[in-house]
Amino acid sequence: MMELNVLNRPSTVNLMISVEKEKIIRIMFGASVRSGELTSITTLTNLDIATERVKAIPALEQCSQNPQRRSSFCTNNWGHCSESIPLGAMHGTRKRPATLYCRTIYLKFGAMSVIPPCAKCSQVMSSMMDMGIVTIYQLQSIQL
Ligand SMILES: [Zn+2]
Hints:
Layout: E1 12-20, E2 23-31, H1 40-56, H2 58-65, H3 69-72, H4 84-88, E3 98-106, E4 113-115, H5 119-130, E5 134-138
Parallel strand pairs: 3-5
Antiparallel strand pairs: 1-2, 1-3, 3-4
This protein binds zinc ion (ZN).
Zinc ion (ZN) is lined by residues 76, 81, 83, 117-118, 120-121.
């Protein structure tokens, strides 16, 4: 169901395309955490949802326990971002790294723009590349 109030919708959505031998294998979507109009209760609910994502995604949990300096300055909670769910889908029993093309779209205030991953998501993506789970390319240069 679509939230009618634009301010209560997720701030970002993410699209990740998994490619193998020049063919699209999987298309994944994610949304940033937003559980309704921001109140003290929904802020806690948002944090709970993000925390559950962290517990479910090993690279996210590992990075949250060992944040890089620049990640400490990012105001998003670990697990809050729209990239979390597609990245989490990459954990498993793959024999070789998945190749992903990633695009995050900022939706707030009725305008859409492509944005780079935040410092925390960048750390998680780098960690997953270091672990040999994925190779990620950003799709920021392609116009919407
Ligand atoms: Zn992020």
